[in-house]
């Protein structure tokens, strides 16, 4: 079986998760090259993982004919140009979420990959998490009857960076954390989102209210699917207590809970007769194995010539849902997802 030679483009926070995976954890793949526009980031990455070729410009990287696939983990504003150039150079494309800045760009990436007959997988790693996959197979088995309502939440611990306060750039929590929930809801529902109503408020950063009156750190969304199923998503940033991603699926004959707030199954009881457990610190920790399985699935889809589990269409629909969610929040009305 041919080894799939990969080039990681972007060696930052999320990039290094993939670098460590492709550096020996993924069957049938090799981390042949890495590329980062920042020489310091590239040097630090090359000190941690082995890659034969190092590039500061992705245009040079994709000229390397030994490279079969690119893993794009550069900032989102560069995804379109890198993905299209890679597809046109006949490289398979894995692209972190969000696939692009907007739906038009996402469609251009999808078209370029289709035209060049290369795979395109988008980085919604929750679909590869063992608990989410178990829930999906229980849903598909009919064990909880017909799905009626799906609830999903993501809360992030970190203080927002300054640029995030301008929600026309960041989309706020709807874009920063809830794009994963939109994808999970669509996946579990097996139906497209028909409408969204979102309300939000800024509870944790009152000092920016004057400069950024639209900024919100907490959002609640009510969703209707095309086939009539119902959905609810909540999102929050700067919650501080930890990273929290959970889902509840209600059916006509039962319900499924996915996830909890604990880092591991440890509960501490003390002499004050209090019980505590460590909270989940980060998405890197919670989805550690899901990222490995996601990368393995990408390589398997190339090796076996199969459609990736998370497609360009899924990436596009999440971008659309984020746009409509934000529009609903800003205009305070139900928005139909065309
Ligand atoms: N799946 C997830 O849960 C998840 C989590 C975090 C980030 N992401 C996504 O991953 C992407 C990167 O995010 P991050 O947090 O790792 O960012 P980051 O800023 O930590 O890293 C980005 C890296 O890309 C490099 N870079 C910038 N421009 C480049 C270019 N033109 N060519 C090559 N390298 C370039 C930067 O120097 C930096 O090292 C974003 O699209 C983000 O949304 C996804």
Q: Overview of this structure, please?
A:
- With 338 residues, the protein is an alpha/beta fold.
- The chain folds into two domains: 4-118, NAD(P)-binding Rossmann-like Domain (Rossmann fold); 127-286 and 317-336, 2-Layer Sandwich (Dihydrodipicolinate Reductase, domain 2).
- Helices cover 35% and strands 23% of the residues.
- The protein has twelve helices and 15 strands.
- It has helices at residues 13-22, 39-48, 58-61, 79-88, 103-115, 130-141, 167-170, 172-176, 179-189, 283-286, 288-303, 312-331, and strands at residues 4-9, 29-35, 53-55, 69-72, 92-95, 120-122, 147-155, 193-201, 218-225, 230-236, 244-251, 255-258, 268-269, 275-276, 335-336.
- The chain has a seven-stranded mixed β-sheet with strand order 12-11-7-10-9-8-15. Strands 3-2-1-4-5-6 form a six-stranded parallel β-sheet, sandwiched between helices. A two-stranded antiparallel ribbon has the order 13-14.
- The chain is globular and about 55 Å long.
- The model has no long low-confidence stretch (mean pLDDT 97).
- Bound molecules: nicotinamide-adenine-dinucleotide.
- Residues 9-15, 35-38, 41, 58, 73-76, 78, 96-97, 123, 125, 283 line the site of nicotinamide-adenine-dinucleotide (NAD).
- Its EC number is 1.1.1.18, 1.1.1.369, 1.1.1.370.
- This is Myo-inositol 2-dehydrogenase/D-chiro-inositol 1-dehydrogenase/scyllo-inositol 2-dehydrogenase (NAD+).
